[in-house]
Amino acid sequence: MSLMDTIRKSAPGRAIWRTPRRVTDRDRAAAHWGSFLLHIYPVRMRREQISFRWSWFLGVASMVLFGSLIASGIYLMFFYVPSPSTAYGDIIFLQTKVAFGQYIRNIHRWSAHLMVLAVAAHMARMFYRGAYKPPREFNWIVGVVLLVLTLLLSFTGYLLPWDQLAYWAVTIGTSMTEFVPFIGGTVGGMLLGGTEVGAQTLLRFYVLHVAVLPTLLVGIIMIHLWRWRKDSMLDMEVASE
């Protein structure tokens, strides 16, 4: 008997692991139902949809890049203050004085670029697969929302270095919102926090970038994965009919 089996069969182990080891199909299903995170997901799905040929693992690549962004972003937050008087200096300090600062910032920047490309490529591949057709059209809409959130994450992070390139890029980007029918002026005002790019704009972009948008993205990703597995079961039912 292995050490892990001994731990699982002990009194504390039985209190923690309340499902049997995944040996038979029934054990695997019981372990799935007993998981706090997995019990809302369907137990079975089509093997074809988890193969490389189906999606080229572009969704997995997007998730890995998102994890890289979270890990590197948390490290960067220790050395950054969202204030116009200190933001640019914090970036210079990070790149020149902090251990692995330049390296971590480059990981964060390139992960952001690659995530945009990976999500867009994932949608293109799924479009080729007909993911916008019944019974998966709802998950296609969820995927479009995820693409928009990914672009917004990239956009809100653009201002944080507070250099000339970031300042004028965000000035142009926020001015474009005024041309959105009905809500353009309101959205632009909410992003700027005033009439022009300033301290309030930097603070709002920072809060959106590190808290609001990542939280939304994680929640919608969970819905996306759940619906992906549910739609796979629908495909199985249609095929059986």
Ends distance: 46 Å
Low-confidence stretches: 236-241
Q: The CATH topology, please?
A: Cytochrome Bc1 Complex, Chain C
CATH architecture: Up-down Bundle
- Mean pLDDT comes to 85
Sheet/helix structural class:
mainly alpha
Task: Kindly report the name of the CATH homologous superfamily.
Answer: Cytochrome Bc1 Complex, Chain C
Tell me roughly what share of residues is in helical segments: over 70%
Q: Supply the number of structural domains.
A: 1
Element string (H = helix, E = strand) = HHHHHHHHHHH
Characterize the largest beta sheet: strand count, sense, and whether it forms a barrel.
none
What's the Cα radius of gyration?
Answer: 23 Å
Count the strands?
0
Q: Which of globular, elongated, flat, extended, rod-shaped describes the shape? A: globular
**Total count of helical runs of at least 4 residues:** 11
State the name of the first-level CATH class: Mainly Alpha
Taken as a percent bin, the fraction of beta residues is under 5%
Task: Describe this entry's structure for a reader.
This protein starts with a helix and ends with a helix. Helix content is 71%, strand content 0%. The longest helix has 42 residues, at 199-240. It has 241 residues and is mainly α. The chain is globular and about 65 Å long. The protein has a single domain, classed as Cytochrome Bc1 Complex, Chain C (Up-down Bundle). The chain has 11 helices and no strands.
